[in-house]
Amino acid sequence: MAISSLAAGQVMTIALRRRQRTTLFLWALAGLLLVGFVVSVGWGAVGISLPQIIAIFGHALGLLSEHAVDDAGFQNSLWAFGRREETVLLAIRLPRACLAILVGAALAVSGAALQGLFRNPLADPGLIGVSTGAALAAATTIVLGNSLAIVLGQFFGFEPQVPGTSPFSFLALPLAAFCGGLISTFLVYRIASHAGQTDVATMLLAGVAMNAISAAGVGLLIFLSNDQQLRDLNFWMLGSLGGVTWTKILTVAPFIAGATIVLSLFARHLNALLLGEREAQHLGFQIQWTKRAVVLLVALATGASVAITGVIGFVGLVVPHLVRLTLGADHKTLLPASILLGASLMLFADLAARSVALPAELPIGILTSCVGGPFFLWLLVRSRSKGGW
Amino acid sequence: MLEVKNIKVELGGSNILNDVSLSVAAGELLSVVGPNGAGKSTLFSVMSGAFKPQAGSAFLEGRAMADWPAEALARRRAVLPQHSELTFPFRVLEVVLLGRSPHAGFSDQGKDLTIARLALLETETLHLVDRVYTTLSGGERQRVQLARVLTQIEFSDSDVKGRQVEQAVKETGGRFLLLDEPTSSLDPSHQHATLQAAVRACGRGIGVVAVLHDLNLAAMYADRIVMLKEGKVVAQGKPVEVLTEGLIETVFELPVSVMAHPRRGCPFVVAA
Question: In this complex, how many residue pairs, one in chain A and one in chain B, have their CB atoms less than 8 Å apart?
Fold first, then answer.
C-alpha cells in the first residue's frame, strides 16, 4: 500500500509540475508579447520611448489632462511628448500593431486547430482553400473590378462611381477577399462531405485541388492585368500590414477576434480528435458538429485576416510546432500559447519588415516565408533525427 | 444490459451481419470469436453505438443507442480500438486523462488524477506516466489506451468498493467496456494481465465485451462465448459448450483437439 500511496503523490507532483511549467511558459509568452508591442509602437523614423508611450496612452484615455501635459515640469520630464509623437503613435503605429496582433493570433490558432482537426502536423490555415480563394477574389477585384462595376452598372442602371470616391470603396477589396475565402472553403467542405459525414482526408485533397485551381485563376488574371494592376496584385499577394486604418481594423476585428477566441474553446474537442474520430465519438464528442464549427471559425479568422493583409505564410504552420516542441500537444495550452506566440512573432516580423530596407518596406509575407521556410526545414531534419514528431 | 436485437448490416452489396441478437449483462465477460471476415468488427461497431445497422438496433439499459445523449453514453460505455491513430506528442498521463472528457463538469482534477492513477496501476503502466506516448512500444501503447478507457467508465460515478455489485449497478446503471482485440500487440504475460484486469472490472459490476482471436484466452477468462461465422451467430454459451472440436472445425476450418486445461479445467484448444 505504501508503494501505491507514494505513486499517488508522484502522479500529483507530475501533474502539478507540468501545470506550473505551462503557466510559467504562458506568462513568459505574454511578457514577450508586451515587449514586442512596446518595441513595435516605439521603433521607427520617429522614436517614442516607453515613458512617452505610457504618457500618450494616459493622455488619449483622459487619465492625463491637457493641463498636466502642458505643465512645465512635465515638459522637462522623461514623459514629455510632442504632437508628432502622439499622432504617429495613435494614427499609424498603434493600428498597425493591433493588426499584427490580431492577424498573428488568428493565423497561429487557426493553424493549430486545423493541425488537430486533420491530425496532420503539416496542415496550415491555407489548406482548406481559404487563402487562395481570397487571393482569387482579390485579384479579380483588382484586375476586373472597374470593368465589372461598369458592366453591373449598365445592367442594373446605376452610375458606377469613380474608384476611390465612394466612402466604402476601400472596403471592396477586403470584402471580396473575405467572401472569396469563405466560398472556396465552403466548396472544399461540401466536396468532402457525404451523407452528413465529412471525411478530413478528402477535405485535405480537395483543399489542395482548390488551391491549384485558384492559383491558375490568379495566374490568368496576372496575364490580363496592366502594370499598375500587376503592382497592386503583387503587393497584395505578398502580404503587408502597411496602410492600415482604424476603420479597416474595426471592420474585421470582430470576425478575427471573435473566431480566435471561440476557436480556443475547442481545446477538449481537438484533444479527443487526436485519438481518432471514432475514439472522440466514443468519448462523447459531437464530431461532425466540431468539424463544421472549426472549419467555419478558421475560415472566418483566416479569411478576415487575409482580406486586410494579403497572404502571410508560415505563421500558422510554424507557431503551433514551436509550442508543441516545448509544451506538448495538449490543446488546452497549445491554443492560448499559439495565440500569444503568433501575435508576438507577427509584431517582430512586421518590425523587421519595416526596418531592414529603409526607407522602403519589405512585404511581410516575404519575410515570414524567408525565415519560416528554412526554420521549418530545420525542424523537419531535427525531428527526423529524433525519430518522428 | 447491453444488447443488440436482430441486427442486419449490408456493406457494398454483401451481407456482413444477418439477424444477430445477443446481450451482455453487468458483471459479465462476453467474448466474441470467429474467423476473419465473420463480422466481429462490424458487430463491435454496432454494439458501441458508432454504427447504425440497416435493421435492428443496439440497446443500452433498454434504451436505443441513438437515443442516448453522447456524453451520458460515454460515461456508461468505453471502447478500446484495435489500433490508435495518436501521433502527436501527448504525455501518457494526458492520454489517460482524455478518458475523463465526458465527466467534465461532474468531476474535479483531484478525482480525475486518482482515477487515472488507479487505471495506470491496473494496466501496469504507472511507470510510464510521464513518458511521451509516441515513444512507447506497441504493447505499451495498447495498455495505456486500456488505462484510458478504464478511466472513462471504471471508477466513475461512484466507487463500488465495499458495496454489493448489484446495489451499485442498481444505483448507477450498468457500465460496459468494449475491447477490440485488446491483446493483439501484447506479450503472453501482459495478455493475461489485460484479461485479468477485464475480469476484475467485471467484479466491479462492469459488463465486458472482448473480441479475441486466441481461443484459449477466451476459454480461460470469458463467462460466455459468442461464435460468429459469415455474419451469423453459430453458437453462444459457456466456454465448454462452445469450444468443441466439431464447432471449431466447421467455423474456423481448422482441425483441432480440445482437452481440459490441466490446472483450470476449462477447454484447451490445440491445432490437431
Answer: 100
